[in-house]
């Protein structure tokens, strides 16, 4: 199984970015997919997630600014990030878990390599 995250970069506050995670080696339609982020010195936390049934979750810190979507045919999950803030700066990881999502990192079987998002003020 491989999860390949891409789309990070350096942007200014207020800008938008779209992260993408391409999955291979798993039956994508049966997995919940999630985006976590980890800022320097902080724990990895759930940002947004989508279940195999299409239910979505967004953390309160990003609600209304970030949205997650999945494409079973392409085996991809994307995170659209709008109105970015300096506090969104982190390494963003995609992760996969059978059936649905969880807020707990330990419950995810597969992880991507991470992509850096830096938001300057």
The number of distinct β-strands equals 11
State Rg: 13 Å
The largest pleated sheet is described as: 7 strands, mixed
Helix segment tally: 0
Overview of the molecule:
By secondary structure, this protein is an all-beta fold. Helix content is 0%, strand content 52%. It contains no helices and 11 strands. The chain has strands at 2-6, 9-12, 17-24, 31-38, 45-50, 56-58, 66-71, 76-81, 90-98, 110-111, 115-120. Strands 2, 4, 5, 6, 9, 10 and 11 form a 7-stranded mixed β-sheet that branches. Strands 1-3-8-7 form a 4-stranded antiparallel β-sheet, with no helix packed on it. β5 and β6 form a beta hairpin. The radius of gyration is 13 Å and the shape is globular. The termini are far apart.
Brief description of this entry?
With 121 residues, the chain is mainly beta. It is 0% helix and 52% strand. Strands 2, 4, 5, 6, 9, 10 and 11 form a seven-stranded mixed sheet that branches. Strands 1-3-8-7 form a four-stranded antiparallel sheet, with no helix packed on it.
């Amino acid at each position: 199984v491989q999860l390949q995250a891409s789309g990070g970069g350096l942007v200014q506050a207020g800008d938008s970015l779209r992260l993408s995670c391409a999955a291979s080696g798993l039956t994508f339609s049966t997995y919940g997919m999630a985006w976590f982020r980890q800022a320097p010195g902080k724990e990895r936390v759930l940002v947004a997630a989508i279940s195999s049934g299409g239910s979505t979750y967004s953390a309160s810190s990003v609600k209304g600014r970030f949205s997650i979507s999945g494409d079973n045919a392409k085996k991809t999950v994307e995170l659209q990030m709008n109105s970015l803030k300096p506090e969104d700066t982190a390494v963003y990881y995609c992760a996969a878990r059978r059936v649905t999502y969880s807020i707990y990192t330990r419950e995810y079987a597969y992880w991507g390599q991470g992509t850096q998002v830096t938001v300057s003020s």
